[in-house]
Prior knowledge:
With 691 residues, this protein is α+β, with helices and mostly antiparallel strands. Helix content is 50%, strand content 10%. Strand 6 (259-260) and strand 7 (268-269) form a beta hairpin. It is globular and about 80 Å long. The mean pLDDT is 93.
Amino acid sequence: MPHPPNHLAGEASPYLRQHLHNPVDWYPWGEAAFARARELDRPILLSIGYSTCHWCHVMERESFESEAIAALLNQHFVSIKVDREERPDVDQIYMAAYQALSSEGGGWPLHLFLTPELEPFYGGTYFPPQPAHGRASFTMVLESLHHTWTHERAKVRQHGAQTAQQLRHALAADPPSPDPELASHLLPRALEELQRGYDREQGGWGRAPKFPRPSHPLFLLHQGWLQGEEAALEQVITTARRMQEGGIFDQLGGGFARYAVDREWLVPHFEKMLYDNAQLVHLYLDLWGLTGEESFAQTARDTLDYLLRDMTHAQGGFFSAEDADSEGKEGKFYTWTLAEIAELLGDDQLLDLATRHYGLTPSGNFLDHSDPQPLLNQNVLHQAIPFRQLTPDEQETLPQIRAQLLEARSQRIRPGLDDKILTSWNGLMLGACARAGLLLQEERYAQAARENLAFLRKALWDSRSKRLSHRWHEGHRDRAQLLEDYAFLLEGLLWHYQSTLEAGTLAWAIEISESMIARFHDPKAGGFFQAPEQEDLFVRMKPDWDGATPAENSVALRSLLRLAEITGQNRYRELAENTLAYFADTLERSPHALPSMLLGLSEMQTGFTRIVLVGDPQASQTRALLRASLAAPGPARLVLGTEGPVDPFTATLAHQATRPTAFVCQGRQCLLPTSDPAQLAQNLSQRAAQP
Length: 691
């Protein structure tokens, strides 16, 4: 018999709805909860997570479904649940607060204890139900904090106020000395620092757990190519191979998990996030263009096929994530015993190939230690012998094995799906689909991009108020205003424009940019705020560091640079320079932490190579030139047509050709035009070789 619903009834977030029937009297983030805390003069438990977070599920089972713990929370605290994906502004502020309070890195679930004024005074991540590994139980923490609040309330309030003030100073203060002329040494320095952290044995950066963090390999790839650093390129190539051959990549269904728990990329934390996969498609397309290695193109295809098959709404939006757990057990959907596969294949030769290629053993390689009754002898499939090292006959046979296993797996109970649609993550995916559709010549990806663009415009954009919503779910959109939506969608639209040359896409990109500037730009100090000024946030942040997704300011900066080149409006470039100047001090102190912004600095310093295409964008000859323009490696490259709101010089080129033609230009200086894709590739190589 489920517990009666709490105050989360009516919330659209799948994560909040997971907690709807907890005995804890959860509130959503909002004035009702804040007023209740003020009325009762109780501290607030702020619990932040997301629907596919494994340890969030564990803590729910252990603590939030406990009647005893719920009684303690309901009697002495006001409890608030936040979906970090719906309110990343709340999450980032209180994650910074936790890091200030604890000097630890943080993670999810995140738990902060706040005064009724929303000021943080204590925090933690996962709390066990019983004392374990030197950690107090959740009950002990709650009882201790209740005692402190009851007997030392003034000190607690003072501590919370001091923490909030420190964060205001650290997060909102203007930089001490904005410098519009950033030193050129930052780029090689960041390249060197990132290379130094490379794992030479297993690929990737750092030890365990291993996260893809696509911004880092993308920076190394582009800067390594630009600076002629072969070692940097090799690091990215090796890492990409290890990831696509490891368990972090779904060897049957495609798509990458959020991270690997080990150093070897073998055992994933099985949740799959839209944002990771969208960015990794770009990385693998870049590597395919650089090396010509077909496995990189195939990984991009497999990833996109997974997203189109399992993560796409009928109306064209892309869902947010898939869970690590199914039937209450992490990885159950994805792992296999050797006996299961032997029975399924029923052929010794097929079994021998599957065993060798996928690294199958009787004892397995995965055990969920958080489960009191774990599944035994489970194998995470990985390429113990890489596909490229199989014999031609084995390479021809493997698709049959994969198809059999995938069909059998499709009969299992799937992991939970977070079916909310976020504008920001869809913006990342829009660009990946559009670019892949062109380069891989796969119409299904181009069609997915068209449908996604139409969905975003219809479901999440208000053309009258020029306002983007953050989240859409089952026909309803929210009212949250976040920089990430405008910045990431702007980037996706510019990729779509470069892949199609559709003037309407460019016009919408300009609308989005103008709304972003009006809502989030700081005209006084520079840079972009994460959210508008709001009473429920005690500080306004300007996101800078890259994490699983690139920092919003970096994405905005790079997109504005591109708009300046496309439209000829120098105001966009000035806004980008202004943003870069604001973060000059942060870049000087920690350049390796802002690789996406450093790519913007690089593009600003080197200038863009523009490929202006004249001709019908739907004509096969124009499409061939378009593919040649985007396929060749190299940063600071921009493709544009001659129709729509492009700069006047570009528009004049439309009258200088009578058939599909490409002009390779820097500023107003162009190489001789060509209608030959091979010659265009040579022209681009010639331009790239110039200092």
